[in-house]
Give the backbone structure.
Amino acid sequence: MLVTQPVIAREFDQRQDRIDFVETEPGADEATVQAILTRGAEAAFPIAEVLNQGELKESREEQIGQLVNLFYALLALAILISLFGIANTLALLAPRTHPRARDAAGDRHVAAPGADDDPYESVITALIGAILGMALG
C-alpha cells in the first residue's frame, strides 16, 4: 500500500515522516543498498536511522523488553509491599494470640482464646497463601 505525503498531511495532520520502508529489487545486495541509503539519509536528515529488517526487529524487541521489565519491576514492588503488609498484620496479631494470665490461686494458667494454637500456624498459612497467589497470578 502506498500512502503519499499529501494524503498523510490531509488525513492524519502529519507533515513529517516517522518511518519509511524501502523494497529492494530481487538479488540486490542489501548491505550496499543500506550503505547508499545511510549516506543519503545522513546528508538530508542527520538524526535519521537506516535499519535493515533484522535491525528493525531487534530495535522493536528491545523496546518491548524494556516495557516488560518495567511491568516486572512494578510486580516485584507490589509483592514486596504485600509481604510487608502480611508481616505487619502478623506482628500486630501475634501478641494477642499468646497472652497468659494467672488465676487467683496462682498455680493454674488460663489461656486466651487461640493461645493453644501453634505459634507458627499463621505464618505458615500466610506463606502458603502467598505462594499459591503468586503461582495462580
Remarks:
- The helical segments are 5-12, 30-44, 53-97, 121-136.
- The longest strand covers residues 100-102.
- Residues 100-105 have pLDDT under 50 and may be disordered.
